[in-house]
Amino acid sequence: MKQTVERLQKIENQMETIGENIRKEGQVYRAELEERQRLGLHGEAAIKHYNEWMKKYGMEHLMVKED
């Protein structure tokens, strides 16, 4: 029984962390998008801007991969 409670607590903590990460990523994405649109960036310039923001905020996993 104790193991089950501990396992459920661990899952709850992981879900809270995932939720916090998603909220943070959403906030960064929206701020980047607003600035990119304000600057009128398109194409490669838009990708570069986006990637710089993601890197700046430690979200490299969201960066656009360039071939």
Q: Please, could you describe this protein's structure?
A:
With 67 residues, this protein is mostly helical. The protein is 78% helix and 0% strand. It is built from two helices and no strands. It has helices at 2-39, 43-56. The longest helix has 38 residues, at 2-39. The mean pLDDT is 95.
Considering the chains and any ligands shown, give keywords for the structure.
67 residues; 2 helices
Low-confidence stretches: none
Mean pLDDT: 95
Task: From the alpha carbons, calculate the radius of gyration and give it in angstroms.
Answer: 17 Å
How many beta-strand segments?
Answer: 0
Helices, by number, come to: 2
Strand content: under 5%
Main β-sheet description: none
Distance between the termini: 51 Å
Q: Helicity level, as a percent range?
A: over 70%
Secondary-structure element order, N to C? HH
Outline: elongated
Oligomeric description of these chains: single chain
Structural class: mainly alpha
Question: What would you say about this model in short?
Answer:
This protein is mostly helical and 67 residues long.
Layout of helices and strands, plus pairs?
Layout: H1 2-39, H2 43-56
